[in-house]
Amino acid sequence: MDKLMIFSGNANAKLTRNICNGLNTSPGKIDVSRFCDGETKVKIKQNVRGKDVFIVQSTCHPANENLMELLIVIDAMKRASARRITAVLPYFGYARQDRKDQPRVPITAKLTANLLARAGANRVLTIDLHAGQLQGFFDIPLDHLYAISIFEEYFKAKELKDMVIVSPDVGGIKMARAYAKRFDAGLAIVDKRRISDVTAEVMHIMGDVNGKNVILVDDIVATAGSLTEAASALKKNGAKDIYAAISHAVLCGPAMERIKGSAIKELVVTDTITIDESKKVKNIVQLSVANLLGEAIRRIHNEESVSALFE
Q1: pLDDT tens digits for 13-59?
Q2: Residues 54 and 142 in one domain
Q3: Which of 300-309's residues contact partners 24+ apart within 8 Å by CB, and which partners?
Q4: Which of 76, 108, 113, 169 is the most buried (most CB within 10 A)?
Q5: Which CATH number fits the domain that encloses residue 253?
């Protein structure tokens, strides 16, 4: 493990420290700051020649700054002769534009994948991509982890009865089915119509939720409009306690106020994105992915199977 080095940008400093604690190592010494005009300034403060380097950085808000930080740190590592550079993106941003669903729009997920490889990343490690097919956008190896085991441990400890797993839209059926299988629970789907990028209207609930404890599952909660609308519709259809298990807590705009006043008893998220504690509402529970990422990093460094984590 003497060749292993883990560095962090400004997006996930706390998570990086927790990963390093689990691996009995210390975060690499690096200065990521700004020039007076706002440009990103990077200085690696120790020797990385011949090292197996992991850079932990989610491309969350502010997305452009965090992505640019990551690209510049990768370039610095490459020019400092690191043996291998792995970009660890607990949250892979720019993933929602993954196809041309309208005329004259970009495919930013592919663009971001190209930028990471061009900057000098040799491989990528991430959690719960917005769509599984994004793995095909990368021309370098990608290890895709899932947070389902973390949520499974949390909710099984609650010993909920009459449980139903609910997908908040048709696109999340595959994820919801995986959760339902793990929990040996029923499955339901919220049929919604998207009105704009930030609002959606619930049309129907497909499945029986009357008198059931419900867990809504999804990969991203951004403005929380769809999530809270779905929770309200489930409550009207007779659901008992409503929980939500969401991998990435983007939580922008009116999200906190919506969650605070919603029918959701607990919104359970991971720490792939740092939440400002001063703005966090009391029904948000944050679980750590540090052990999951730490074990994956250890396995990649030792050239062991990462897929064994899912067995």
Answers
A1: 999 999 999 999 999 999 999 999 999 999 999 999 999 999 999 99
A2: yes
A3: 300/54, 300/86, 300/123, 300/125, 300/143, 301/1, 301/3, 301/4, 301/52, 301/54, 306/143, 306/145, 309/145
A4: 113
A5: 3.40.50.2020
Does residue 192 carry a catalytic annotation?
Answer: yes
Answer yes or no: do 127 and 259 share one domain. Answer: no
Residues 297 and 220 in one domain: no
Exactly one of 192, 212, 280, 282 is catalytic; which is it? 192
Is residue 10 located within the same domain as residue 143? yes
Residues of the domain holding 189: 148-287
- Over residues 249-306, the pLDDT tens digits come to 999 999 999 999 999 999 999 999 999 888 889 999 999 999 999 999 999 999 999 9
